[in-house]
Design goal:
There is one protein chain. Helix 2 (51-68) packs across helix 7 (194-227). The N and C termini lie far apart (53 Å). By secondary structure, the chain is an alpha/beta fold. The chain has helices at residues 2-20, 51-68, 92-105, 136-153, 165-168, 185-192, 194-227; strands spanning 30-35, 45-46, 49-50, 72-75, 110-117, 128-132, 160-162, 174-181. A six-stranded mixed beta sheet has the order 4-1-5-8-6-7. The chain is built from seven helices and eight strands; from the N terminus they run H-E-E-E-H-E-H-E-E-H-E-H-E-H-H.
Length: 228
């Protein structure tokens, strides 16, 4: 009888492990999240809303989504301030210099910088993912994130190489994501919506996981070739 009970307990444990066990796809991976702008630098402002506020809202949600996958997440900012933290004489140059230094100080595997777009053409819309134009890996990471992200944003914009300082001057592999156009009334409403922000974060995470898993497989192949 005791053996029967023991078997039942073991089977129950195995079933529960299969049902409730969650594989953390980014376990131990270090990721820096950069909420663009902040403090005196509001970024774009449309319909009474500020880009830096929306950037931070999305970053804080993305942080929780990534942590559930086992990632170690660091933020360049967690409040409404720029990197200088001065209350006078704002300097974009100083802000970016300190932002880059802070990002590399974490010695992370990935960087994701969150922004919102704007245009004089009020009908312009859609997300877009940027990478440093000299980075082959950045290009691949951008493509994977864009592939997932457009499932929500339905954007037709391709990934784009750039020389943005936050990507160019950092040693960390990263992308800059323009989640949408705040200058577009309908898209601005979406970007402010908490549920929509959550969907964006999930898709960004899925794209990052896709790239990371491919990168791990490639590294294993390289090691195997060396050993052979």
């Amino acid at each position: 009888m005791k053996k029967v009970i023991l078997v039942i307990i073991c089977l129950s444990f195995m079933i529960c492990s299969n049902v409730y066990g969650v594989k953390q796809e980014l376990k131990g991976v270090k990721i820096v999240l950069d909420a663009g702008h902040g403090g005196f630098d509001n970024g774009t402002m449309d319909y009474g809303y500020k880009e830096d506020d929306i950037n931070l809202e999305i970053v804080l949600k993305l942080k929780e989504v990534l942590k559930k996958e086992g990632a170690k997440v660091y933020l360049t900012r967690d409040g409404d301030y720029d990197m200088t933290k001065r209350n006078h004489h704002y300097s974009k140059q100083d802000d970016m210099y300190l932002r880059v230094k802070k990002i590399d100080r974490f010695k992370a595997d990935y960087l994701i910088s969150i922004h919102q777009n704007a245009s004089g053409n009020k009908s312009a819309w859609g997300s877009q993912v940027f990478y440093y134009y000299r980075s082959t890996k950045g290009n691949e990471l951008a493509k994977d994130i864009n592939q997932s992200l457009k499932e929500v944003t339905h954007s037709s914009k391709p990934v784009s190489g750039c020389g943005f300082r936050v990507l160019r001057a950092t040693k960390t592999l990263g992308v800059l994501i323009e989640c949408g156009f705040m200058s577009n009334w309908n898209e601005c409403g979406q970007l402010r919506n908490k549920a929509y922000q959550e969907k964006l974060c999930i898709k960004i995470k899925e794209g990052l996981v896709r790239y990371h898993q491919k990168d791990l497989r490639n590294k294993k192949k390289e090691v195997k070739k060396v050993l052979e």
